[in-house]
Structures are given as C-alpha cells and as structure tokens.
Amino acid sequence: MIVRGLESCANGMLALMDANDNTANNLANVNTVGYKKGSLRFKDVMHSAVYTQAESVLRNDSTRYLGSLSTGSESYTYTHDFTQGALTKTDNPYDLAIEGDGFFKLQDVEGKISYTRNGSFIVNNDDYLVTKQGEYVLDVQNRRIRMVPEDLDPDLIRDKVEIIVAENGNIEMNAGNQKIPMQTIGLFDFSDKDDLFEISDTRFIPKSPDTNLELRAEKYSVQQGMLELSNSNVIREMISTINTTRNYESLAKIVTTNSQMLDTAVSVGRLRV
Question: Which residues constitute the domain of residue 118?
C-alpha cells in the first residue's frame, strides 16, 4: 500500500504540474487580443478493484466487493474556452471584433488556412487586408480581401476614402459622394469546437477536418474599430495557481510521510533477518 500511495501521489503531482503550466500560459496571454483560455481535462490512470479478502476474488463473491481505487490521475486532453471576451474600442477602421459566434478565416503565403478571433488587421502594400504577421483575410467566397477596387487607382483615392464595415461583414468604400460596395468578410464556425487545435496563441485549425466541417457562422455581429480582448481572467488564474500549489504541497507531504514509513519498514525487516 505504501508503494501504491507513492505511485498515486507521483501521478497526481505530474498532473498538477501540467495544470500549473496551463495556468501560466493563460496568465501570459491575459493581454493577447482574441486569446481563448485553455483548460486541461484529467482522467484516472487506472482503477483497481478492492475486496475485503484476497480469496474472495477467486470465489467471485460479489458481496465482498468494496469498490475501486484509483492510482492517481493524468492530463487527458487540452481544450479551449471560446466564450466571448470583452470588446475594447480602438477607432482603427481596420480593427474588427466578432460579437457572437464565428472566426475570421486566414490564408498564409503558402496557402495554409487557419481561423482566429484576433481582428487586429492592417492593409499591406498591395492593398490587401492582412494580419500583422502577413496572413490574408478571406471573404465569404474564400478570396483575399482587397481594400481598393481593381478598377480604381489606389494612388488617386488613398487617404481620401472612408472604409465602412457593416455588422454583417459587408465592406463599403465611401469616396467623396460615391459609395462603392466591396467584398464581404467571411465568418466561419465549427460544430465541435473541442476539436480545434491551437497552432499559435490566437489561431486554430480543426484536428479532424473531414468530420468537423467548416460552417458559415450565423449568430454574429462585426464591430468595426473594436477588438476582442482575451477571455483569460487574472484573478481566477491566480486563484487556480494558489489551489494547484496547495494541492502539490499536500501530495509532497504524503510522499515524505510514505517514504519515512517505507524506510522504517525496511529497517524493521533488516533487524528481523
């Protein structure tokens, strides 16, 4: 039983270390735009049946069965909390926040697709709407979004127009008295958000793209000149850190106690020999 206790404590301490690393990552991204806090799920390592007497197992006497005993837990899967983060006003016309469901769809220079809630965008030298890392923002037809119509000279209208993004994602250019309808920003969603895999602090891809298909988002509102902040809460994460530390210290004390008991048992065994 002493050895089993040491094994259970060791498994629990490893799981708590994983939990503490996750909390640290959430704290580090409290100020990251569009960040969705992560959480760990745990499972029992193994269940052992407990009987009142060892021979009752051979007799298959169910009346002597007491239950099961876990030998500790381990981290099982990593998921994200996709609840809405608070919106903050920036007044930058290329800053966009999603209120409700959905993700912006991005395409890097190699053509790889990812999804994000981080709407901190800029316009590159070719007049395309991109992330600050250079990934293209796609519209509802999976085309790159160009912020200047192709039939207009960008140099003639640059700094003389106003870009308006409606709540449904429609982009419109106001050039003087002329209103020019443009592309519509693509907002996409997934039926199983637990299947989404984080490839950076704010970008996701589905782990099972064949089964967890991309869907058009329905319940959303695009807010221009605003950004969605991280949904990681400093106070909650600090409380989680304190609880994890206390649990780890408790298990460490049990390990110390069991080690002393094991040393005593070994010493007594040597004296008898």
Answer: 87-228
